[in-house]
Every structure is written in C-alpha cells, then in structure tokens.
Amino acid sequence: MRKLTVRDLVATLIVAAVIIPFVGYSVRGSMPFVQDPRGMAGVGLAGAVLALAAFGRRAFGSGMFERVMAVLAAITIGVAVAALIAGNVWALLVPMVAGVVIVWALALAHDAGYLSDRHLVRHG
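User: That's the sequence. What structure does it adopt?
Assistant: Structure tokens below.
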C-alpha cells in the first residue's frame, strides 16, 4: 500500500470543483459560473482536462491500466465537448461528470496500490 501524494489531493480538489457545482446546479438550477447546461459543460470540461493534467503523463503510459485511463479520459473529454457544443442537452452532463468521477476514483485506487499487478490474481 502506498501513500497518496499532493498530486492526488490536487486532483481531488479539481474533481470537487466539478461535482459541487453540478449538484448545486442539479438541485437549484443555477450556481455561480453555472447558469445553464453550457456553463456546466464548460466547468466539466475544464475539470476533466485539469484532473487529467494533475495525474500527468502516467495516464498515457504503456500498461493496460494506462491505456484504459487514456480511453476513459478521451471519452469524458469528448462528452464534455459534445455537451458544450450542444448547449442545452442535460443528458450529456451526467455521463461527463460520471466520467470525471470514474477516472479520478480509478487513478486514486491505482496510486494507493489497490490496482497494481500484485493485487491481480493470475491463473496459470
């Protein structure tokens, strides 16, 4: 088991900066900087890109985990861009935020050592 780093804390704060406005926007219909679905899409896109940057180059490494993370990040950013372009499509905001949370959770679990090769069961 490894200790989490400052990078993980920064990524957590970035993800919280996406989730808190999303929940507030979902409940109240508006939040500071988020007055419509396009604004929420912009916040989500910025959060997705910043969270990916916080985890760094490792998300695009050579192992299977890194490939999965790269695909999930690309899908999340793609959905965020689609939500930003579409403007009034609420159905794109939910998978965008879910993608941000999934990438963050997998990255934290990996950095904590829960998704390392040592924990995988190999049958031979």
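Residues 6-28 form the longest helix (23 residues).
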